[in-house]
Amino acid sequence: MYAIFFLMDLQLKQKDNRTFPRIMFHSKINYQIRGKPIFDSALTRDISCGGLRFTSDRFVPPSTAIMLEINVLNRVLKPIGRVAWSTPLAHSNRNQTGVEFVEFNALEKNYLKEFVRMQLD
User: Fold this and answer.
1) Would you list the DSSP string of 39-60?
2) In terms of Cα–Cα distance, which of 2, 1, 119 is closest to 49?
3) How far apart are CA 54 and CA 70, in angstroms?
4) Which DSSP symbol is given to 89?
5) Distance separating alpha carbons of residues 22 and 120, to the nearest angstrom
6) Rounded distance, CA 25 to CA 93, Å?
7) Which domains are present in the chain?
8) In b/e form, how buried is each residue of 45-59, taking b as 16+ CB within 10 angstroms?
């Protein structure tokens, strides 16, 4: 019983330590590993002004630079990210990947910031 409360408390603390608020965001994105000619698609799970999490068929190693195309309402945002972590999903051939945004057009970043804020209100 103690372990359950410990894990719940740990999850709450992790959320409190985040620099940017995160929202659930289920959308198809396109991404390209920097230096490769092919775009792949994936499904996002959540997003913040600092990054996003997606699931895909491909394992993308940590520290990989990727270019993203994210559809947010009526705009396509094109930040460049760095894979922070990537892990296989249990009982699946899919992977879950966390990406930190490292280059982001200021206008696009503000658009995302307002979108996240509206979802939180």
Assistant:
1) EEEEEEEEEETTEEEEEESS--
2) 119
3) 11
4) P
5) 9
6) 22
7) 21-120 (2.40.10.220)
8) bebbbbbbbbebeee
Determine contact, residues 53/95, Cβ cutoff 8 Å.
no
Cβ-proximal residues to 89 (8 Å cutoff; 6+ apart), any chain: 55, 95, 96
Q: Which of 25, 31, 23, 33 is nearest to 72 (CA)?
A: 25
Amino acid at site 17: N
CA-based end-to-end distance of the chain: 34
In the predicted model, is pLDDT for residue 18 greater than 60?
A: yes
| Per-residue pLDDT tens digits for 1-17 | 444 444 344 444 445 56
> What tens digit of pLDDT does each residue of 26-66 get?
999 999 999 999 999 999 999 999 999 999 999 999 999 99
Tell me the pLDDT tens digit for each residue of 74-103: 899 999 999 999 999 999 899 999 999 999
